[in-house]
Task: inverse folding
């Protein structure tokens, strides 16, 4: 048995690259319509004639500059990981744009590229006649026409990959030529680089082209390897050439690259004038309209919300109950009380919390994948872009915010579809302010017990405070905390399509499984820790537990908001799950309703507001950690406590003054 | 003689040839890779108020903020 060969998939967004990945590897991964959705590196395997191939799905990119993380990931993988075969997925219905990337790949000097000409079945309908054999001759690269969606041509593609990996196929690509002055400059730089260590690892021509485009990474590379003097000399020379041109060289080079592609295209493509009354055009007239579009959006998301939570919440409570039943069934069988507490409250309680979220997370991913793959998601983001941008968010931030009203965990995971890094991070950081359904239970309990009239108004005011704080913080964070420039707004609107159901299902499954794995450790750890605090040295309620000690310690602080040590303990337990705030009061007072005599209306209102704002619950923390890392998770916890305290103190003092 | 105007000023149905793209290198290289290079023919599909402008370039449909579209200069056809 030979070693496993590595196959990299590269291509533009929306060309069906991920669909091909799934088709090759047995559909164990994601397919999406949103540009930039595949941020992580994804791998899968397939076997052909007894040989195993490891397929790596690279992020979809339009080019390979050093400007975006997706492009840098793709480029570095192609350059440094040296895959055995690079499959460039090309959308036959948009050849011009797709071949731009193809030539960026070929310019790197790769000799192991195979072009998968995707959507070949659609070409004729659109009046595009491509001769793949002729295309292969002209480009000097093997070309395999395929349809990733229907599976046509996949066997031939696998065979071509296998043969390329064994070195049986030739890849002698033509490369773009630029105009004379640029070519002279490429030659000049090449001469400087020839014979250096860099020349051993990279194509000299590629280095020269990238230096001409003032590529940050390549400039750094040259600086590191050849020193400042050499780099300065090269860049000075380029500056002189640029001056003679009177316009920037990257523009000149991009134009010549397109001219070059254009000159090749007519040798293997014929375009017929087919007038297609586009379904997409007609639908877009409504869905991208600033007024009708928003109405359509409200309707669509009403149903998404309904679907996810009407189906998911009952399943969640069912699972939660199943785990608590398991715990009580198991309890008598464990003789050591210490072990019993750990297993029942800590482990089963913790694992149960995680697993009970599974249906919600799965349904949410399913709904989002369907919206993405139909092409609707891009339109939803488009109609909201202007409003959201004012707050430092993106049009795509809307979905996570809406989902937050149900549960912040799937909501935070849904931020992945935001391709602007800055807007994505801000969306993650403010999401926990959106009151989830667990907090709704606290809010409605408190309003029911403490307010005899205007209950709905009271509850609504808490929601208004929470949403207001969320947007205010988004505005502040994007201005003062989260660094980086917002990418200028441009996005592709893919054509509407029927989603590939099997892939959607498998994708949702994979993603939710990943959540369980990621969140599991954090939640389990948290649950065991809280179990420890509430049972040592004596169980909570006796006044001797660590939890109560912490409550007393925090008492002076929460008294600023008019609350007592019992509130502090309750809030501490609310960290596991927000509905615990009320349950803990129950333990401390003996019964839930005893709470009514323990505090006034204003204190209760403050408690409800603070419960809504103060920290993300453990599961949400795990989601934040997963999406943004430890640092931002701790940041979120800290700043939310600060914000909640501030708001709580404000309400208490204004309230008592009134 | 046709005027050179910013892409943001085109009305739905109007076409233009991209003449130049001003603005930062980052935005420019992204636009060019998406197919919006000098010489490309664009046709505006929708443009409501001051919201994003939707247009096609080749077979690709793009939505772009007005600010960015103002930096793409086209010769009206």
Result:
């Amino acid at each position: 048995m030979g070693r496993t060969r590595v196959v990299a998939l590269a291509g533009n967004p929306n060309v069906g690259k991920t669909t091909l990945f799934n088709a090759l590897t047995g559909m164990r991964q994601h397919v999406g319509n949103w540009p930039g959705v595949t941020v992580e590196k994804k791998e899968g395997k397939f076997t052909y004639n007894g040989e195993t191939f490891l397929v790596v799905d690279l992020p979809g990119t339009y080019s390979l500059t050093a400007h975006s993380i997706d492009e840098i990931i793709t480029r570095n993988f192609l350059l440094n990981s040296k895959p055995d075969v690079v499959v460039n997925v090309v959308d036959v219905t948009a050849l011009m744009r797709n071949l731009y990337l193809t030539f960026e790949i070929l310019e790197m000097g790769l000799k192991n590229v195979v072009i998968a000409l995707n959507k070949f079945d659609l070409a004729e309908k659109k009046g595009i006649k491509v001769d793949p054999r002729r295309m292969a001759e002209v480009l000097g690269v093997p070309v395999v026409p395929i349809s990733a969606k229907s599976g046509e041509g996949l066997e031939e593609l696998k065979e071509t990959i296998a043969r390329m990996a064994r070195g049986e196929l030739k890849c002698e690509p033509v490369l773009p030529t630029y105009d004379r002055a640029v070519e002279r400059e490429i030659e000049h730089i090449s001469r400087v680089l020839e014979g250096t260590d860099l020349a051993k690892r990279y194509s000299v021509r590629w280095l020269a082209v990238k230096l001409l485009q003032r590529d940050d990474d390549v400039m750094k590379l040259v600086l590191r390897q050849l020193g400042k003097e050499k780099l300065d000399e090269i860049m000075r020379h380029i500056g002189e050439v640029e001056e003679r041109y009177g316009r920037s060289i990257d523009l000149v080079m991009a134009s010549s690259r397109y001219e070059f592609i254009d000159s090749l295209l007519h040798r293997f493509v014929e375009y017929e004038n087919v007038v297609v009354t586009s379904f997409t055009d007609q639908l877009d007239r409504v869905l991208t309209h600033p007024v009708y579009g928003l109405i359509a959006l409200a309707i669509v998301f009403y149903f998404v919300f309904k679907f996810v939570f009407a189906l998911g919440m009952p399943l969640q409570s069912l699972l939660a109950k199943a785990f608590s039943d398991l715990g009580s069934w198991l309890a008598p069988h464990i003789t050591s009380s210490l072990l019993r507490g750990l297993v029942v409250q800590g482990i089963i309680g913790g694992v149960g919390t995680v697993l009970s979220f599974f249906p919600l997370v799965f349904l949410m991913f399913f709904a989002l994948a369907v919206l993405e793959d139909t092409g609707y998601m891009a339109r939803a983001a488009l109609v909201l872009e202007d409003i959201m941008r004012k707050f430092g968010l993106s049009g795509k931030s809307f979905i996570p915010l809406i989902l937050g009203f149900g549960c912040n965990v799937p909501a935070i995971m849904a931020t992945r579809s935001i391709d602007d890094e800055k807007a994505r991070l801000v969306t993650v950081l403010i999401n926990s302010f959106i009151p989830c359904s667990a907090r709704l239970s606290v809010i409605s309990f408190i309003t029911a017990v403490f307010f005899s009239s205007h209950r709905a108004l009271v509850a609504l005011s808490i929601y208004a405070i929470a949403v207001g704080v969320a947007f205010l913080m988004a505005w502040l964070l994007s201005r003062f905390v989260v660094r980086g420039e917002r990418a200028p707004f441009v996005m592709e609107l893919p054509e509407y399509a029927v989603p590939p159901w099997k892939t959607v299902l498998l994708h949702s499954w994979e993603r939710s499984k990943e959540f369980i794995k990621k969140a599991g450790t954090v939640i389990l750890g948290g649950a065991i820790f809280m179990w420890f605090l509430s049972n040592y040295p004596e169980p909570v309620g006796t006044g001797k537990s660590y939890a109560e000690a912490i409550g007393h310690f925090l008492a002076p602080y929460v008294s600023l908001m008019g609350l007592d040590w019992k509130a502090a303990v309750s809030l501490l337990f609310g960290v596991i799950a927000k509905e615990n705030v009320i349950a803990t009061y129950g333990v401390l007072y003996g019964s839930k309703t005893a709470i009514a005599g323990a505090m006034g209306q204003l204190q209760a209102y403050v408690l409800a507001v603070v419960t809504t704002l103060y920290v993300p619950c453990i599961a949400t923390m795990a989601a934040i950690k997963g999406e943004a890392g430890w640092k931002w998770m701790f940041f979120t916890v800290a700043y939310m406590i600060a914000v909640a305290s501030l708001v709580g103190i404000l309400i208490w003092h204004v309230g008592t003054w009134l | 003689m046709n005027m050179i105007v910013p892409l943001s000023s085109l009305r739905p149905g109007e076409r233009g040839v991209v003449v130049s793209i001003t603005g930062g290198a980052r935005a420019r290289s992204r636009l060019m890779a998406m197919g919006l290079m000098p010489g490309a023919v664009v046709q505006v599909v929708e443009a409501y108020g001051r919201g994003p402008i939707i247009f096609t370039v080749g077979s690709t449909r793009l939505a772009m903020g007005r600010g960015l579209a103002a930096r793409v200069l086209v010769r009206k056809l």
Notes: Helices of chain B lie at 25-33, 66-69. The mean pLDDT of chain B is 87.
